[in-house]
Structure formats: C-alpha cells, structure tokens
Design brief:
The structure holds two protein chains of two kinds. Helices cover 76% and strands 0% of the residues of chain A. Chain A has helices spanning 2-13, 28-47, 58-69, 80-110, 112-127, 134-141, 145-169, 173-181, 186-222, 229-238, 242-270, 275-278. Chain A is elongated, with a radius of gyration of 22 Å. Chain B is an alpha/beta fold. In chain B, strand 4 (80-85) and strand 5 (88-89) form a beta hairpin. In chain B, helix 3 (112-121) runs parallel beside helix 5 (155-167) and helix 7 packs across helix 9 (254-271). Classes of the chains: A mainly alpha, B alpha/beta. At the A-B interface, helix 8, helix 9 and helix 12 of A face helix 3 of B.
Chain lengths: 279, 275
C-alpha cells in the first residue's frame, strides 16, 4: 500500500502525490543503466549456467518478442489482439474509475455531510488490498470483459478520489476570499478556482490510475479470460515458456512508460501556468 | 440607492447622514482561536468615512486592521455594533465594494485580462462594462500585458492588475489590504503615485490598510492609528497636505514631519508591550 502512504503524505504536505521523476529518454545514465543490466543478464546466464526455465537468454526473449510483433495485426499468434483487448478494457475501466473518482471526490470536498459519510469507507477500502476483491468481481461480472472493466475501474478510482479531494481542499483561502468578495456562486468558485487549483493533484492521481487500470485488467485476466495479455502470460507459463513471459512483461513495461508519458504530456498542456515551477 | 431597505431608512437618518458612505459604529469582533480561547480582535470601533475620502489605517501587526477590512468587505461577521455601507447594513459582500488583496492574489491559470474581467463573469448579471477593462489596463500601463499570465509579470505589475480587477465593476468603495507590502521600496512609491492619480481621476472612496507610516501620510486624507489587540482607534489625523503630492516635496512639508512623528509616537508606545 505504498500508494496510500504517498497519498497520506501528500495530504499532509499539500503537494500532489506522484513520483515527480521524469522518465527522460535522453538521459545517458538511463541508457547506461539498461546496458549494464543486459550485460549482467548475459553474463549471469552464460557464466552461472542458469537453466533457461528460470532465466532465459536475452536472445531467446528477443526472439519471442520478434515472433509476437512481426506478424499481421490480425494474427492470433501476435501480441496485437491481446494487447488491444487488455488496453481497451483497461481504458474503459479507467474512464469509469477516473470519472467516478472525480465526481465523488468533488462532492466530498464540497459537501461536508458527504465527506463524513464516504470518508470512513473510502479509507477502509483504500487500505484493503483491492486485488483481493477480484475473485468476487469475477463471480459478479463473469469471465468476459465486464469483470476486467470493473476491476480496472475499482483500482483507478481511489487515487483519483483521494487526490481530487485533497487538491480541491488545498485551495489558498485568499482565492476563496476573492470569489466570496465577488459574490461568486459555489459552482463558479468550483469551476474557476478550485478545479484548476486541484489540476496538478488530479493529474498525479490520473498518473497512478492509468497504471492501476492496466494492472486491474491483467489481474482479472489471470483469474480467467479468453484473451488479453494476462492470458498470453498464463499460457506461456503453462508450457514453461519463460522467454515468452519475459517478452510479454517487456511489452507491458513499455506500455506503462508510454501511458505515463501521455499523462505527463496532457498535464503539461493543461497545467500550463507553471504550478510546479513555483514549488 | 434603488434597493434601499425600508426598514433601515429611519435608522439611516440617525446613524448615517447623507455625507457618510461608510458608517462604523461601536463595532466589535471576537473570535474563538484554534486553542479555544476568545480573541478580541476589535473593540468598539467607531468611524465615519465620507464619499470620495482616502483613509489609511496604520497599526501594529495583529492589531485587527485586516479584520476591520474583512468586516467591511462582508467576508466575516462582526460580533457587536453596526456597520453601514451607503446606509445599508453590511450582511455579506457588496457590489459597491472592490477588494485589493495582499500580494495581488491573481489566478495563475488565467491571463491578466481574464483576471481583471473576472468580477464581470461571476456573481450574477452585471451592467455592460464597455471598454472599461481595456481602459483600466491602459491606465495602469498593462495594455501590452493583457494576454500574459501572472507569473510572467513583476510583483508591481501583478498588483496593478489586482487594482484593475477591484475596479472592474466600477465600485464606489475600494478596500485595500496592505496592497504594496510585498513590493520593493521603489516599486511601492511608484504604485503609491499611480494610486493617487487613479484616485484623483475617479474619486473612489478608499480605505487602505498599511504598516508604512510614510505610505499612509502620502496617500491619505485621514490617517487612522489603531492600537494593539484588541484593536481600538487611537487617533484620527487629518492630512492637510495639498495634492497632487510627490515624495520629494512631501517630506519637506511641515505637516508631514509633524504627522509622521505623531503616528510613530503612538505606534512606538504600542510596540513597548511587545519588547
């Protein structure tokens, strides 16, 4: 529950909860690190005689990757169909989770009665390892896309809920005074002051939510599915194709980096006034 | 005055004569601090301000002068006494009032022009402003900065925009809470001069809170000196120095030295308790 610790810490320090690390593709240190990792991998496999069902040779992983990527997008052997299935379910779930998180987080921040009603449950649920609920959700929603979407939505809901709530409450009182002195309505204050003010927090939540949505979809696929990257991994595991598992993990890792980059890019477009520069 | 409250009419005749715009009568404010103790911020303040007057309030820090401004702006409730704006009891923010906050308080996600226009966009319908916004920007030297964002402006320019915003609805009263406190001395003098010019051009009633004695005497028709908490009015000093005033001339004026000495004496007597 490190994410929860992050959120709690951010609520105290009043700063958006997100690793503000930039994954910069231009950084030479990152590339050197990767090269060292691969070299020590090659060295370990060749010098220590590790069996390939424990740690495959890098070239075997590259071959597995290639066989999955260098096919027609419609091929049942490639990564494209399962990737699309996983991604689309994760995206729908993420949209639902983020939307609900934003709406309920806003209601909690605006209406004290709702805060008092929802907050204890939100914290209790947040402390619960949510993937543990996944089997229950499979019972409710079946083995189709429904359970994947539901688990993705559940996992992406909480970071957005907590972050939007924290961000909306973190408004400088002077800005609220300004809107009050102008007799602005509650909705005007929300739209013009509170929501933009909370945007860096909400994006930090969104950053976590996209990764969690992917995680949710994969976990749901582990529990039973006909297609998806989770199925690719379990099928490879079933025949001890460790190189295939590695290849699928690399695909998911790259996907996570791409999603993170997209969120960062959107944040830079929306939060254009340099809220982070100031801090 | 179309909306004059009938119930207030008789009281208005007795408490607020026609030439009084802001009537403060035996006003007290007590609030409960975080530790649960009652804090007497203001104690029986009485003060009448005429239309078009420029009044500066000086006092030691924490004397309740900002509290007074918040009560006038309708942002806080008062505990006792009466507070009338233009004959009407203050029961919340009024359209007749524009507030200039400390450190400009602009919204960083809006351009300067949108910040200045904000009062016309919220709080119900407003009379068309015509080209007022553009004129305000021009008068304060911000004409070329309307499309910039606040962080692209210097502190002095930000506060100019803050003043423009307070004037956007063309209010009768301008309340200013230490508006130039965060600026360097030179910028501050320049903005003092500009504020004097703006005031001379459209004769708003201004109540400005400051802790600078020279700023208060330079700007004000009347300097109100407040005591340490609970805030009381120690002196109400008329400033008979002709306008337009300049910083070079005003220090040579005999009344300047006299007033500065008097205000400083009153404030020093207050500070004694703290040291």
């Amino acid at each position: 529950m490190t994410d929860f610790a992050n959120i709690a810490a951010s609520a105290i320090s009043q700063k958006p909860a997100s690793s503000r690390r930039r994954i910069s593709l231009g950084s030479p240190i990152a590339w050197i690190g990767l090269a060292v990792l691969i070299l020590s991998w090659i060295a370990a496999v060749n010098l220590l005689n590790i069996p390939s069902y424990i740690l495959p040779k890098p070239e075997a992983v590259v071959r597995a990757l290639w066989s999955g990527l260098a096919v027609s997008p419609a091929s049942s052997l490639g990564y494209y169909l399962p990737l699309w299935s996983t991604l689309s379910n994760a995206a729908v779930g993420c949209a639902i989770g983020v939307g609900l998180g934003l709406v309920i987080g806003s209601l909690m921040a605006e209406v004290e009665a709702i805060e008092r009603l929802v907050m204890p449950y939100a914290f209790a649920l947040q402390s619960l390892p949510k993937v543990a609920i996944a089997p229950l959700i499979v019972i409710w929603f079946g083995f189709g896309d429904g359970s994947k979407i539901a688990i993705s939505a559940l996992l992406s809901f909480f970071p957005v809920l907590i972050n939007s709530f924290t961000g909306l409450r973190a408004v400088e009182p002077e800005r609220i005074d300004l809107m009050r002195s102008l007799s602005a309505s509650r909705l005007e204050t929300y739209r013009i002051v509170k929501l933009p003010n909370a945007a860096p927090f909400i994006f930090a939540g969104l950053d976590m939510a996209v990764v969690y949505a992917l995680l949710g979809a994969i976990v749901a696929e582990f529990l039973g599915a006909q297609r998806g990257m989770g199925v690719v991994i379990t099928q490879a595991q079933a025949v001890s194709d460790v190189a295939g598992v590695f290849a699928a993990l690399i695909i998911l890792g790259v996907l996570g980096i791409v999603l993170h980059g997209i969120v960062r890019w959107c944040e830079a477009k929306v939060v254009h006034w340099g809220a982070n520069r100031k801090k | 005055m179309l909306m004059m409250d009938v119930d207030n009419a008789p009281r208005r005749a007795s408490a607020a004569p026609d030439d009084v715009l802001i009537a403060i009568d035996q006003l007290s404010k007590t609030y409960v601090s975080a530790s649960g103790a009652a804090v007497h911020a203001l104690s029986r303040i009485s003060l009448d301000i005429k239309p078009g007057e420029f009044v500066c309030v000086v006092g030691p820090s924490g004397c309740g002068k900002s509290t007074l401004l918040r009560l006038l702006a309708g942002l806080d409730d008062y505990s006792e006494g009466r507070l009338l704006l233009d004959g009407e009891t203050v029961a919340g923010p009024s359209r007749k009032v524009g507030v200039v906050f400390q450190a400009a308080n602009l919204l960083p996600w809006m351009t300067v022009r949108d910040n200045v226009r904000l009062p016309l966009r919220v709080g119900g319908r407003h009379a068309p402003a015509g080209d007022r916004i553009e004129r305000l920007l021009a008068v304060t030297g911000l004409a070329d900065f309307g499309d910039k964002y606040p962080y692209e402006l210097s502190g002095g320019m930000q506060q100019r925009a803050g003043i423009c915003r307070a004037l956007a609805r063309d209010p009768e009263i301008l309340l200013m809470d230490e508006p130039f406190g965060a600026l360097d001395a030179l910028t501050r003098e320049r903005l003092n001069l500009e504020l004097q010019r703006i005031w001379q051009e459209n004769r708003k009633t201004i109540l400005l809170i400051t802790h600078s004695i020279s700023e208060a005497i330079f700007l004000a028709d009347r300097v109100i000196v407040m005591s340490a908490r609970p805030g009381r009015i120690l002196a109400d000093l008329h400033v008979p120095i002709p306008r337009p005033r300049s910083f070079d001339d005003i220090v040579l004026h005999p009344d300047y030295a006299r007033l500065a000495k008097e205000v400083r004496g009153l404030l020093n007597a207050q500070e004694h308790g703290h040291d």
